[in-house]
Amino acid sequence: MSQNRICxxxxxxxxxxxxxxxxxxxxxxxxxxxxxxxxGTLGPNSGAKDITPDVELTGERMRGQIKKVRSLxxxxxxxxxxxxxxxxLKYSKKIVEVVIEExxxxxxxxxxxxxxxxxxxxxxxxxxxxxxxxxxxxKKAEEAGVDAVICEGFEAGGHKGFTELTTLxxxxxxxxxVSVPVVTGGGIGDARGVLAALALGADGIYMGxxxxxxxxxxxxxxxxxxxxxxxxxxxxxxxxxxMLARDLVNDFTxxxxxxxxxxxxxxxxxxxxxxxxxxxAQQLGQADEAEICCGQxxxxxxxxxxxxxxxxxxxxxxxxxxxxxxxxxxxxx
Length: 333
Ligand SMILES: Cc1cc2nc3c(=O)[nH]c(=O)nc-3n(C[C@H](O)[C@H](O)[C@H](O)COP(=O)(O)O)c2cc1C
Description:
By secondary structure, the protein is α/β, with parallel strands linked by helices. The protein has a domain at 5-219: TIM Barrel, CATH 3.20.20. 44% of the residues lie in helices and 15% in strands.
């Protein structure tokens, strides 16, 4: 077993965590990453083909995915708990119940405070990794008893708070602020990013978008193609009511930004978001008309690969990238 703190904590071979992705990271992707030595994470709506407002059905769908992962791999894996606010809490409460009943080894908790579920998950013997986007929140998560914190930099795909701290700044700030292991993500897609993250003080790596563009992900093929085509400035940070969301630039984001500029009402914006949701992009393939959460790393992705290839590329190239870096550092003096 590796001496790396994340590998020791989670019982995995390489400290690479596939970040949870709504409608994208289902059992096939999760099992493939875990089989390749990382940690796969089931995201919300894993394995689902339609939207349901039903809490029980949401929980049972997740239970089905957990069982499917176990039929594909014996290795550790995680489930994402999106804490949420108000009404949404009933969904996260249900997922927590299922995760405990199924004795899932690891929970990746996001979009909410660490006080809500850390205690109950830890009491059930589940390892808790909590996602944060400021050093202060990292400290708070540590105080609440989490096993590790996950930094999400501004480059990352998906939803986060209103802070715009990039991975380059957030990672060392958090690494200095906490004693628990630090996982970092947002902009990492290959061995260079992994090496940079380790240099910044991270113990583990969190990758979402790179794993979305794999054969095993549940993302629609048109979405994967759109990301492969994406160039350096292909994403935008979209201001929503409660948070920012990084998305692939398409007709949907252009129209949304236009509505923002003309000061459309919150109701009109909400309606527009609901009618052009991630479900429509990821499941129905409406890659121009609907929302595709996606990180800046899209500009570096040139191919749909298997999840195992993504893992192997990182592992294979890390040594040679490290040698190059050592040479550069030696030349520095
Ligand atoms: C399509 C997509 C969906 C996402 N959905 C979720 C989610 O449901 N829960 C969550 O905690 N994070 C979600 N995220 C954020 C990721 O877990 C992670 O923070 C991010 O992908 C890391 O940055 P990267 O995309 O640059 O690798 C999502 C990201 C993407 C790209």
